[in-house]
Amino acid sequence: MPGARPVFEVADIFRQHGDAFRVAHAGHLSRSQLRVMGAIEACRTAALGGHVECCVDCRHQRISYNSCRDRHCPKCQSTAAREWLSARAADLLPVEYFHVVFTLPAPVAAIAYHNKATVYAMLFETAAETLKTIAADERHLGAEIGAIMVLHTWGQTLTHHPHVHCIVPGGGLSAHGDRWIACRLGFFLPVRVLSRLYRRLFLEKLSAAYRADKLRFFGNLKHLSDHSAFDAVLTSLRRVEWLVYAKRPFAGPEQVLAYLARYTHRVAISNHRLLAVDNDGATFSWRDYRDGARMKSMTLAANEFIRRFLLHVLPDGFQRIRHYGFLANGHRRAKLMLIRRLLAATPPSIVDEAPEQQPACAVADSSQRPPCPCCGSRMVVIEILPGPRRGNRGPDTS
To answer: Domain locations in the chain?
Structure first.
C-alpha cells in the first residue's frame, strides 16, 4: 500500500549484523562508512533523543525519537526531498523538459570507487560541458541551456554503477540573451554526438588527473600505477561506445516535479523494497531491465548486503545535486526572470506537501504534528528526551 510504513528497514539489517560486519572488516572501512552505519542504526531511537507528546483531550502519550538526518539514511530523505523540492518548484518553466543520462563504463567505474571525489566530480563536469558545448553549437541548438544533475552510484541490485541524471529544459537563451530558442518538439540533442564528445572530454580529464598524481589504485587495480598499463586502459576505452541515453521527454513541469521528488534524494535502496530480513540476510525487490523491466527478488547474505550498501557512501561534503548553465546558483534567479519575460510566462505557484505526510520526528510546529491516533485531537510536547551532548551530536553527513 503506497505511503504505508515499511515492514522491514535497512536499519534492521545494520542493527542485527552491523557489529559482526565491523569486526570482519576492521581496518577496511572508511570513517564515513562507519559514521553512516552508526547513523542508520541510531536513527529514530533513544540514542538520538526526542520528545514525549500528549493528547490534549484523551491524554494518550507517544514518544517521537529524533532522526539522524544522514543523507544516506532511507528514513530521512523524504523530508529533505520535500524541502529541496519546494525551492525547485519556483524554477520550472512552461517548456518541454528532457531527461539525459551519462554513465561511466565499468573500467572507469572501478577507478571511480577508489577515487570517488575526483572521478565523480569529473563525471559531473564532463556531462555538463558536453551538454553545454553541443547545445551552443549553431548546428544543433545554438543556445545557452540549463540543467539539474543528480548523481546515482548504484544499479538495481546495489552494485556500483555511477551515472548522472540530467533534467534539462527543452531550449535555451540566445547568445545575446534577447530570445528563447526552443528545441524541436520531442527532440533535444543527438545522443551519438553527445556520447562521442563525452568520451573524449572525460578521457582527457582522467588522463590529466593521472598525470597530476590525483588518482590512487588498490587491490586488483594496483597495476594501473604503471603508466603503460594505464595508457593501455585509456586506449581500450577510446574504442568502445560510452552510454549516453535520452529518455522520453516529460509530459510537463508537473511530471518533472514528480520525478525530482522521487530521484533527487534517493538512496541506494529504499525500505519499501525490502521483502524480508532475517538471520540469514535480506531479500529485496529489483527491476530487471534486461528482461523487459520485470520485477524480481534477490536475497543477499547480511555481510554482502551491508558491503553493497556501503559502496554508495559519498565523500564528506560531496554535492550529489548540482545546477549548470542558466540554472547555476550564481545567476539562476536573474536568468529565470529574463526567460519568463521572453516566454511571457508567470512564475509557478508552490504547493506545500500535506502536513500529515511528514514524519512526526521531523515536525516542530504543533499545528503540523500528526493528531492523536486514539481520538484525533491535538498533541502537545510535554517532555524533551535528551540526546547526544552539543558538539557530539553524532551522525549528520548531509
So the answer is: 91-268+314-343
